[in-house]
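The instructor's notes for this session suggest beginning with a concrete chain rather than abstract definitions. Hand out the sequence below and ask the class to guess, before any prediction is shown, which regions might be ordered.
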Amino acid sequence: MRKKWFKITSIVLVILFAMFASTACTENHDEVIRVGSKDFPESLIIAEIYSLALEAEGFTVDRTGHNLASGIVHTAIINGEIDLYPEYTGTGLLTVLGLPLMTDPLSVYELVKREYYERYQITWLDFTEAHNGQGIVIRTELAQELGIITISDLQPYAHQLRFVSTAEFLDREDGLSAMVTAFGSFDFYSANIMGGNARYEALRTNSADVSVAFTTDGHLYNTHYFTLLEEDITIWPPYNLIPIVRNVVLEEHPSVADALNRLAPHLNTHVLLHLNSQVIVYGRDIQEVAREFFEALP
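After discussion, reveal the predicted structure:
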């Protein structure tokens, strides 16, 4: 009887030990992951999608770092005030690292990935096709009338056309100046400075003909009014949107990377365009749009 009891006790202890060992090897998801974002709809939408992916993985997410000013968010992650946020490769290259302009998306990604890891102990996760770079938009009716498909096609007609722009695009070296260097002179009939929504309204109402754009502007989803011209000579840096995470967080919780990397194949420029249009054009709630996207993922 004693032998039988000893055998049973031993088996129970082995099982308990195995359960303890298994638990010890499993990540502790009790720690809160602090997700940040910049203060515009696209960044807020993507940050919310990241948050949902992490919650589905079992993490608790702190969203108080959402909606930070663009000039603050990098400092926040460096100082450990947030753990991760969606960042653009072009911003990392030019604004944060202060490196020379490059135009190849994968080369820029590999460079910023290496530099952030070495300088800031921050990891860029998997590359995504989602790209929010500079572009030129024209009224669709006018594009069809003049046969304008590319920026090269636009250049000979510039003197006839009314251009609306941001002040930044007119002043920056990688803005209008880069277009002139690559394609030749753009002596627009007129050039006025306007905000984003005002520029698209000016195009829609035929108060302007051409505008600077960002390739995932929600308004561009309406191709009846707006046509984004093809950049037939690559002149602008890539701005691929990718999660960046503090190394210490990934060391403690490697499944953070797994959860966010699973999103990468599902995020591209067209997806960003659609998500932005839902918020900017149709006025839908950011959390609702993000949740709808996330719950529809396979």
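Then share the key points. The longest strand covers residues 60-68. Residues 75 and 96 are 10 Å apart (CA to CA).
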